[in-house]
Amino acid sequence: MRRGFIKARQHEPQVKALLAKVTASQRIGLLAQKGVYEFHHHRHLLDQSDGVEKIAQLLKLSNSADEVQQRVLQILKNYYNAPLLTGKRVILLTRGDEGFPKPILIDQQRYYFRLYAAMDCVFTESDSTLHILDFKTGKSTFDKRQALVYLLAARYLYPKYQAVASFYNLELCKKSELISVTKNELDSIEFELANIAQKHQQDLQKYQQRYSDFSKVFPPNPGPHCRFCPFNSICEFSGVRPRLTSILPIIPSPRKQTESESSKEKH
């Protein structure tokens, strides 16, 4: 059902407002990534005793809540003590607030779908292997499926390279294993994503034909995980709030979605 709110009802005022909210965890992730970006572009600060404090000033960290300040400061100290990008040939390093990247249009047996892959960092190893690195914070898990999407995107964005992907938790200083796939495996991933994108498009068409069938097209899966869902305050099936006495009215989206999308949910 979360997918339904994001894909089918994103333009409704209540849904749009919830999507615009930034939680403490999201803010920590964003500031952590910005911190890495600033350290990389002000490398001399890695050699200064007050380097962490100066990066904190660039981030305007003092404007954040106490918990955010404390955790981000620790992340900056972690990176200051072990700058993992030092000596790397960095091709891409984002601040994290650039918004959606340019979509990759993929043709899978004459079915076209758009792939969005917002990569945090891309660099080359000494053997010219392309390394896609995704930053994490807090208790975020390393989801291999996310890495597979990055590797598929690299096939189109960096076709001359053999690519690997990995995750790094800036808060816990924890690395994942390197993730790599064969050409045949990439072909299978692309085929599977095309099927998913086509199913999403079919679901959108069903919803647009009958808005009252929202919970049938996008079935709910209530449980303890509902407390992490940004839509638990308006979802009648949420497992973390009293059941609503009336169902939230479904307002048709002013813009019909005509192409399937496959996107990275951040941190």
Question: Which tags fit this structure?
Answer:
single chain, alpha/beta, 5-stranded mixed β-sheet, 8 helices, 8 strands
Structure explained in plain terms:
The chain is of the alpha/beta class and 267 residues long. The protein has 3 domains: 2-20 and 191-262, no CATH class; 24-86; 90-185, no CATH class. It is 38% helix and 14% strand. The chain contains 8 helices and 8 strands, in the order αααααβββββαββααβ. It has helices at 2-8, 13-20, 24-41, 51-58, 66-81, 144-157, 183-209, 214-217; strands spanning 89-93, 104-108, 111-115, 121-124, 130-136, 163-169, 174-175, 261-262. The strands form 2 sheets. Strands 1-4-5-6-7 form a 5-stranded mixed beta sheet. Helix 3 runs parallel beside helix 5 (66-81) and helix 4 packs across helix 5. The two termini are 19 Å apart. Residues 241-266 have low confidence and may be disordered.
